[in-house]
Write a structure and sequence with these properties.
Largest sheet: 8 strands, mixed
Organism: Macrostomum lignano
Shape: globular
Enzyme class: oxidoreductase
CATH class of one domain: Alpha Beta
GO molecular function: carbonyl reductase (NADPH) activity
Structural class: alpha/beta
Strand order of the largest sheet: 3-2-1-4-5-6-7-8
CATH architecture of one domain: 3-Layer(aba) Sandwich
Family: Belongs to the short-chain dehydrogenases/reductases (SDR) family.
Bound molecules: NADPH dihydro-nicotinamide-adenine-dinucleotide phosphate
Strand content: 5-15%
Protein name: carbonyl reductase (NADPH)
Distance between the termini: 35 Å
CATH superfamily of one domain: NAD(P)-binding Rossmann-like Domain
């Protein structure tokens, strides 16, 4: 059996690989993936020092060719895929001077469109009882709660994947036109990218075909990584707990399916008066 974690050369993805290796044992092939071969090799040797023996495959989710190469490799070597953790993502720093239009386009591209690209390439390989986890974030709740009442109404109706794609395209178009706030969105590219991931999870879980394939997303909490400039209080291992829990849900479970979780608990997708981030 085989598990793949995107963007796992460092941070939460690194800890997810380590925990999966420990929990699944040596009959599983667990893959560290990295867009950069040298950073991947370095992670592999750090993981070996920590007593686990994952494998490595290059993966840049921004490159269709790289994603296709991984898909062909998995199909040829294992005839499919049992666990997919979509962890790779980016976030501009709060003090970035990059124009908002650029931040919106680049962030939505990697975090939403290119996570979807990985799904498009790898979902056809999912075996019975496969588990898929997307790293989302509680900032999606914050973005929902800061949206205009009209947009909140739209976001909380069940949406097809095509509607979610349209929503993400519209947000980027609005960012380029400088009219994000008129459209009811909060001015957060990262937050909206994770709204996209969350709505994508709900749509995919409704649509997925296959025997006992379970798709969920989660927030790892505020974690001490490069992404947070090491401000988060949680360790990468604490951050990996819920993603690993979801990636290893036993066969035949009835819940959680198509949910967003924080600390192993389902967080409903709803407007909450007086919302504050957990
Ligand atoms: P880091 O920035 O520490 O690590 C991100 C990882 O993703 C790195 O391995 C990075 O590779 C990789 N990556 C980025 N772009 C690509 C790409 N195009 N192709 C392949 N890999 C890529 O982030 P975290 O560990 O903090 O975050 C992991 C996940 O958790 C993300 O989805 C994030 O949004 C989410 N999250 C994190 C929170 C936190 O507090 N840290 C809170 C909520 C959610 P490279 O080294 O090459 O840059």
């Amino acid at each position: 059996k085989v598990a793949v974690v995107t963007g796992s050369n460092k941070g939460i993805g690194f800890a997810i690989v380590e925990q999966l290796c420990k929990q699944l044992g040596s009959s599983w092939a667990v893959y560290v993936t990295s867009r950069d071969e040298a950073r991947g090799a370095d992670a592999l040797s750090q993981l070996k020092q920590r007593g686990v023996e994952p494998r490595f495959h290059q993966l840049d989710i921004d490159s269709q060719e790289s994603v296709d190469r991984l898909a062909a490799y998995l199909k040829g070597t294992y005839g499919g895929l049992d666990i997919l953790v979509n962890n790779a993502a980016i976030a501009y720093k709060g003090d970035s001077t990059a124009p908002f239009a650029e931040q919106a386009e680049v962030t939505i591209a990697t975090n939403f469109w290119n996570t979807l690209r990985v799904c498009d390439a790898l979902f056809p390989l999912l075996k019975p009882h496969a588990r898929v986890v997307h790293l989302c974030s509680s900032v999606s709740d914050m973005a929902l709660n800061k949206a205009s009442p009209e947009l909140q109404k739209k976001l909380t109706q069940p949406m097809s994947l095509d509607e979610v794609k349209q929503l993400m395209s519209d947000f980027v178009a609005r960012a380029k036109a400088g009219t994000v706030q008129e459209a009811g969105w909060p001015q957060t590219a990262y937050g909206v990218s994770k709204v996209g991931v969350r709505l994508m999870t709900y749509a995919q879980a409704r649509d997925v075909k296959g025997d006992d394939i379970v798709i969920n997303c989660c927030c790892p909490g505020y974690v001490d990584t490069d992404m947070t400039s090491h401000k988060g209080p949680k360790t990468i291992y604490e951050g990996a707990d819920t993603p690993v829990y979801l990636a290893t849900l036993p066969p035949g479970i009835k819940e959680p399916i198509g949910e967003h979780l924080y600390e192993r608990k389902v967080v409903p997708w709803a407007v909450k008066p007086g919302f504050t981030i957990a």
